[in-house]
């Protein structure tokens, strides 16, 4: 195990008791800064593209539903991303040990919401592909203020809501099929690294 300043235990307890968790300073500050720098570089390079909604042939860009720009992360692209993938793989194993979820892999993309962009209320699990099981978003924005908006708003089973501010180093973790959520518009650019732990698919494809 690496010496990350995290106890996965708190995340796992929260997930078991309420289906979601939020942890400030999930990743070491140095790693969060490097991920933010990597995300900025990709934005500056014009590497991000408008995110689509739907899957397969039904995929469409619909800014009225989702206005972020994204780029998928692959292993070997940058040292910071690779370190993050190692960290998330450790979390994947911890989740499997606690919940027997059979999580097989972790996919993630950088996301950039320009000021005013949002993502309407949705679930992360697709209708025709139920592999996404646990959603994990780490935020990359230094000195975020509540009045700047941009919260992740989760709608909880008890009818309540919980907002997570996209502050650098904060991780939001939730059950992909159980927690509807939305991204509120912000007054400043909002960067994140958004990912999903996936279980094996049922389809023999
Ligand atoms: C998503 C999403 C949440 C966030 O990309 O599906 O809900 O806070 N992101 O960025
Ligand atoms: Mn989502």
DSSP strand content: 25-35%
CATH classification class: Mainly Beta
N- to C-terminal separation?
A: 34 Å
As for the number of domains, it is 1
Give the rounded overall mean pLDDT: 93
Number of strands: 11
Structural class computed from helices and strand pairing: alpha+beta
Here the CATH topology equals Jelly Rolls
Q: Which value, in Å, is the CA radius of gyration?
A: 16 Å
**Largest sheet data:** 7 strands, antiparallel
Structural account:
By secondary structure, the protein is α+β, with helices and mostly antiparallel strands. It has a single domain (6-199), classed as q2cbj1_9rhob like domain (Jelly Rolls, Sandwich). It has helices at 8-18, 29-45, 79-99, and strands at residues 20-23, 49-50, 69-72, 103-113, 119-122, 132-139, 152-155, 161-164, 171-175, 181-183, 190-199. A hairpin with a 5-residue loop joins strand 7 (152-155) and strand 8. The longest helix is centred in the middle third of the chain and has 21 residues, at 79-99. Residues 122, 124, 181 line the site of manganese (II) ion (MN).
